[in-house]
Amino acid sequence: MSESGKKHHTVRAGRDAVSAVQLSQSLTAAIDQWAEARQINRSDAIRQLVELGLRASPVTASHARHDVLEIEEEAISLLRKLLDPGLPIEERERRIRRLIEGPSEFSEQRVDLPKHKK
pTM score, two decimals? Predict the structure, then answer.
């Protein structure tokens, strides 16, 4: 385990990775039903479903970036509607920025923000 408490998995040459995932009972039942219809086991069904999903909707970095920006713009729009219109513009923008970016003590943990060189 690493210092952050997360396990790092490596795949050795010539071997497939073994991954454990938590699935709800209803999702497991749906996967089992899908597998049974194709006469395969659950492990193969999960692998095939993941491969199908990845092929069906490949996400490029530009798509992901666009989605993030779109979500952020929607959040800012909603925050502007919620904030007191009597506040000075600078204060309203400061509050919005604080809510969108989060507390500075967590900025190093944000994966969606650019890292600033120290």
Answer: 0.41
